[in-house]
Amino acid sequence: MDFVNTLANQLMYIVNEVGYAAVIAITALEYACFPMMPSEVILPFIGVTAAQEKITYFGAIFSSIIGGLIGSLLCYLLGYYGGNPLIEKMKVKFPKIKGSIEVINKWFEKYGKLAVLFTRLVPLTRTYISIIAGTTKLGMTTFILFSMIGIMIWNSILITLGYFIGHNWSYIEFIMKQYSIFASVIIGIVIITAIYKRKKYKVCSK
């Protein structure tokens, strides 16, 4: 937790000094799967900075959406031009994300463009959906539209948490932990359902 606080304070210092450009850059890096703190930490601290009137509340949300779209488009283009070989390399290099990518694939097969929206609201899957969408050659306009809606909802919720209750970080942690548990249950249900349907299909086809 000390590391998180130290890094978060550094990010807040950068936002204080640079302003909205820093918010755009930080959120773009996070949405581009850059190895840094997750949005569950970054965005509430941006909300805290807004509460200190270094930047405005709505300005923080708007600039974070712009950053999220930039980062998402970078990953979309990587998937678009990298294709499935890129996905396979990611699974090998980062084994921990294999499950998340498989869940995203299942959701994408079932819900199509809507998966771009609601996976934005689920930890772990929310950034990798951009690469999957690019790999499947989803139209860029459709990708931007559904991404923007999901990013707007996610960013607004977390920035608002930081803005209004940033003084009670333990409470924010509690909320996000409960939400993560809920999201994990949903992911588990999706995986179990997919496995069950696959086995049932194999049995019926024999």
How would you describe this structure to a colleague?
This protein has one domain. It is built from nine helices and no strands. Helix 4 packs across helix 8. The mean pLDDT is 76.
List keywords for this structure.
206 residues; mainly alpha; 9 helices; 0% strand; globular; DedA_domain
Q: Percent of residues in helical segments?
A: over 70%
Treating each run of at least 4 consecutive H or I residues as one helix, how many helices? 9
Helix/sheet category: mainly alpha
Number of domains: 1
The residue-averaged pLDDT reads 76
Q: Write the element-wise H/E pattern from the N-terminal end onward.
A: HHHHHHHHH
Q: How many strands appear in the DSSP assignment?
A: 0
The best one-word shape is globular
- Report the sheet with the most strands, covering strand number, pairing sense and barrel closure: none
User: Low-confidence stretches at least 5 residues in length (pLDDT < 50)?
Assistant: none
Distance between the termini: 54 Å
Whole-angstrom Rg? 18 Å
Strand content: under 5%
Keywords: Cell membrane, Membrane, Transmembrane, Transmembrane helix
Organism: Clostridium aciditolerans
Main location: membrane
Family: Belongs to the DedA family.
SSE layout and pairings?
Elements: H1 2-18, H2 20-31, H3 39-51, H4 57-93, H5 98-111, H6 113-118, H7 125-135, H8 140-165, H9 169-205
Helix pairs in contact: 1-2, 1-3, 2-3, 2-4, 3-4, 3-8, 4-7, 4-8, 5-7
Main location: membrane
Family: Belongs to the DedA family.
Protein name: DedA family protein
Write a brief structural summary.
This protein is mainly α and 206 residues long.
